[in-house]
Amino acid sequence: MTAADLRASILRHLTYSLGSDADHATQHDWRIALSLAVRDRLVESWFTASRATRAAGAKRVYYLSMEFLIGRLLEDAIVNLRLEDEAREALNGLGLDPVTVIQDEPDAALGNGGLGRLAACFMESLSTLCVPAFGYGIRYEHGLFRQSFEEGRQVEAPEEWLTQYHAWEFERRDVRFKMCFGGEVVEEGGKTVWHGDQAVMAQAFDTPIIGWQGRWANTLRLWSAQPLHGFDLDRFNRGEYAAAAEPEALARTISRVLYPDDTTEQGKELRLKQEYFFTAASLRDILRRFEAEGGQLADLPKRAAIQLNDTHPAIAGPELVRLLHDERGMPLDQAIATARGCLSYTNHTLMPEALERWSEGLMRSLLPRHMQLIERIDAAHAAEQPSRNVSLSSDGEVRMGELAFVMAHKVNGVSALHTDLMKQTVFAELHRLHPDRIVNETNGVTPRRWLLSANPRLSALITDTIGVDWAHDLEQLERLEPSLTDPAFLDAYAAAKRANKVDLSDWLAAEYGLSVDPDAMFDVQIKRIHEYKRQHLNILETIALWRDIKANPDGDWVPRVKIFAGKAAPGYFFAKEIIRLINDVAAVINADPVTNKYLKVIFLPNYNVSLAERLIPAADLSEQISTAGKEASGTGNMKFALNGAPTIGTLDGANVEIRDRVGARNFFLFGMTADEVEARRAVPDHARQAIAADPRLSGALMEISRGTFSPAERHRYRGVVANLSGDDYFLVCSDFTAYWDAQRRADAAFADADGWRRMAACNTARSGWFSSDRTIRGYMSDIWDVAPLDP
Ligand code: CGF
Ligand code: PLP
């Protein structure tokens, strides 16, 4: 496709799809017209892919996920179709700025963080690898909330992405399933039948996800909840307008909002309804497709690999058994075995509060047949175990992690360390019973979005040096190794990073009126705000550094800009306190004329995928400082390393593997290991001891306590300080001194400009293994038993 073709297609869509003319078109009109023109180009690959899949009778991967944190799609599609030059030329020819048009697209924020972003990277990799796959999830009307700050405090507003025309999706009026809740289970003619008493329609919306070079496109199918029947005309005619619309409003509630937390179960009944709604609709769809293609039920595992992304879709186990046994007459044992042959489960966290449990009462009232089947599955499983130690329910609750484990043929952890910890802790008993079930598939990120499109300068340098194949074969980055001692390459590498930092500085100035020095170290911590991720450790170190600089303003300080971004779950009070504290500290430090040229603190609002794409290429130092044992993997850490920001971090999650690959000398390691963390917690008064031993830590805490950062309300952070000097479960105080030391090592390394650029370039050259293509290949061989197709 030439630029002229693309331009003609844009104008055609502007006229005939949008009914707008070039003289009056808004930015939004142009963006939609461009999106539709680009979308036309990917429909062909989409059809080719499904034809090839059907012709081969190929096994398909079904990725069930409550979250898909997609971000913008237009740039992804342009880059993967290799239409960058054509799009630029066509838009310039129309008098439009390509960057502004592309940035007009709102982020599709149908996820909270790592888990949802991983699902989005996986979808792109599955298409790149030409693996037949569907992603299944929920088409939330409101994605993750918008965050702003008022007097430093987080304020949440609803995300309204669907108020704009969503150019990428196709509504499938012919793909609708009736989903039931509640009701009763009866025996009818020798069969068990569930009669639900509430029902909603699951309506499919499809988004094609295009792979590298447009060779293949898979479908992301999202379900929207709709009423069975329109509104109540009788009531309407009686003038009861609100009541007439009630059934519709109630039905829509199910797909109304994304729960703003992926680690705790909330809103119990609605959350469980959401989980059942999208899982059951997806299974119905999978079976419909399988049967339409003439499959025999016993062969289902040969044709369908169903991945459960965390426990959110764990009800898939009993639901698939119900569909096979109750509705299709397969004997129960065989139905369980068949379902297990299809299902596999990814565990993303070991934190007890995050392992879902549903009260048996709620289950029995909402999903009465499933509760019965869970008991049958539990009994069948108990019969297999000599000790009968593992049970799917305890204390009146169903344990969804155990249910997912028992109903899956493979269970995977998301990093090597996390997988080991799964075996030793939450799933120790189950692992003993099924020693081959747990496997490790360390997470990855798609290089198309996280390097090629997010960091065009570095991408161009890499392509100039080793050719473009790295984009679909990221391990080729190793071929940069000889260049790591080439001064010309390192100069170009450093120039690309500096230009990215200048861009970010300009944007900070334009958007927020902030002035930062692009030659300072950009020290970045961006992720959900959570105690285990320890943003408070970072801010304590910042305060201590500020005090040191103040005490010795003529010292040889390395200038730093500390950049934070991230959302706190609205109900997570302590995390919101951390946000406020960082904002309060930033206000004081940024206004301090003595320290100003050495230290700035910035908390950017509304962290999302697009902001990550802007910040990561400009980062010098990547903060991955979780309490060891708590971050299952991390994926942000991989993006930073790939983009040449060395990590300061603990031996946690995938940090361990990043350090192994980039080399210990190119990673600022500090802190206790997972084992040491456990031992330290057992020391009485560990926090007080740590505080007493480190005057910088006690000084920083004292500053907070005396109201330095909250002069109008001296005791604002009494709770934070009490937590840190009391229980300090996440061992902020005990790791402080080691963290401080690592930061000073980072300072010294940064001051050596040549050494730093080599370190940064080493991180890029040695991060090739962290491609989500590698992760997907691992799932294909270890879990799904699927092969790629040749379109
Ligand atoms: O999943 C996470 C993230 N919070 O979404 N977990 N969950 N649930 C982990 O905490 C991350 O460490 C991990 O990288 C991510 C994806 O596996
Ligand atoms: N949120 C967004 C918007 C992201 O882009 C990412 C990863 O890049 C994450 C969350 C996950 O970050 P982390 O792995 O640091 O928790």
UniProtKB/TrEMBL annotation:
Catalytic activity line of the entry: [(1->4)-alpha-D-glucosyl](n) + phosphate = [(1->4)-alpha-D-glucosyl](n-1) + alpha-D-glucose 1-phosphate
UniProt cross-references to NCBIfam families, sorted A to Z: P_ylase (TIGR02093)
Residues recorded with modification N6-(pyridoxal phosphate)lysine: 639
Record-given protein name: Alpha-1,4 glucan phosphorylase
Record's keyword annotation contains RNA-binding: no
Cofactor(s), names only, from the UniProt record: pyridoxal 5'-phosphate
Annotated function: Allosteric enzyme that catalyzes the rate-limiting step in glycogen catabolism, the phosphorolytic cleavage of glycogen to produce glucose-1-phosphate, and plays a central role in maintaining cellular and organismal glucose homeostasis. Phosphorylase is an important allosteric enzyme in carbohydrate metabolism. Enzymes from different sources differ in their regulatory mechanisms and in their natural substrates. However, all known phosphorylases share catalytic and structural properties.
Listed InterPro entries: Glycg_phsphrylas, Glyco_trans_35, Pyridoxal_P_attach_site
PANTHER family xrefs: GLYCOGEN PHOSPHORYLASE, GLYCOGEN PHOSPHORYLASE, LIVER FORM
GO biological process: glycogen catabolic process
Signal peptide from the UniProt entry: none
Organism for this UniProt entry: Rhodovulum adriaticum
Record GO cellular component, one term: cytoplasm
